[in-house]
Amino acid sequence: MVLKIKTGDEVVVISGKDKGRRGKVTYVVPGKNKLMVEHINITKKHIRPTRKGQQSGIVEREALLSISKVMLICSRCGKKSRVGIKVLKQRTDEGGKLRFCKKCGEVID
Description:
This protein is mainly β and 109 residues long. It has a single domain (10-49, 57-101), classed as SH3 type barrels (Roll). It has no helices and 10 strands. The chain has strands spanning 10-13, 22-29, 34-37, 42-47, 57-62, 65-66, 70-73, 80-81, 83-87, 97-101. A 6-stranded antiparallel β-sheet has the order 6-3-2-1-7-8, with no helix packed on it. A two-stranded antiparallel sheet has the order 4-5. A two-stranded antiparallel sheet has the order 9-10. A hairpin with a 4-residue loop joins β2 (22-29) and β3 (34-37).
């Protein structure tokens, strides 16, 4: 399966508690179809000290988010859009596939 969203892309959340918020993709977990976005899906984790002198408490951290809950923001038109994939006849470094915006047709890669 080809993932249409990669690390470094700017995305907007389309469902859930952070709907409408934008952020940059930190990393992607392809096997689980999940990704992490900066400052999105913040959860609280209770930490207890495991070593002497370590501080305990409640820490806020970003959690994984499903790829289906985000849409890519096109750099040319600035709107959220679906991503298409073009297969090239000549092979490039990425394996002969290019991502493009389905609204304006701009190549993303």
